[in-house]
Amino acid sequence: MRDPYDVLGVGRSAADSDIKKAYRKLAKANHPDQNPGDSGAQARFSEINNAYEILGDKDKRGQFDRGEIDAEGKPRFQGFAGGQGYNQSGYGQSGFAPEDFADIFAGMGGGRSGASGFRFSSGGGRNQQGQEADDDILSSLFGGFGGGRARSSSGFSGGAGQQSAGASAGRGVDAKAEVAVTLEEVAEGRKSRVDLPTGKSVALTLPKGVVDGQTIRLQGQGYPSATGRGGDALVTVKFVPHPLFRVEGADLHLDLPLSLDEAVLGAKIPVPTLSGKVQITVPARSGNGKVLRLKGKGLPTTSGQGDLLVALKVALPEAAEPELDALMRKWREAGRPSPRGAAFS
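== DnaJ-class molecular chaperone with C-terminal Zn finger domain ==
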């Protein structure tokens, strides 16, 4: 397996954003769907994804840079001669030479020559003489094989690093993406095309009751794993602002301008909705700010449909209207009651 930095063509000091940019470019160019008939595209694509699985994760990248995992993300053994974890004396992290182990094992029952006779049992960690096996000494010698002491069926304390690697090896890394949808798409339940950072493009069916900012999980659509199923795609839904409607939960809000005569005398007026225009009746003497509710003309919910709330906004003419001005002067001179009541007088 090649060095993941070489695979993505970036230096070891590359910023996370540069690594992500390089990955996206390579993944898109080498995606099998973009290279029909190229038998090597799948292998290149997998290698690119495996490299990003390490370098795209801060923890894994740090482990790789420190030599704790290899290019496949597997833990490097850091104990005996021939391994990666040597100290300056040429031996493992504990600093013991191989011949030292015989003396230590002898002290645990069996003599120097009896070191080869020492064995771990499956019955609570006792040796052949029935004495307790000193797990703490072994942990200090072997460095816990990664830090943990998860006992296997043979009584051997394995490393936590090996366990976590095994647990994560069967599943790829999750991929995050956003999709912008219109209110019309939400209302009609249309499918939206989502371009994932893995290079895939998938059709997303919006669930009923979806809200702005909701994250939808697409199983198996994330970064692939070398040994098991891929991770998931986490797609965040973003509503595109509408020129007419405001969204509050599943309800929509619309401001409807009215002329003065429509507000005073009433009128039938066509009103836009997400599914086409409908005609509403504005009652006579409708005050500014009065709200009319249109049932079921909002966004879909898990159990029904929201409403459309229409707020009436009386619009006065900008230019002078002599007849209207004369009528208003007549009203003022007649001493009509104030709509504000006694509290404002």
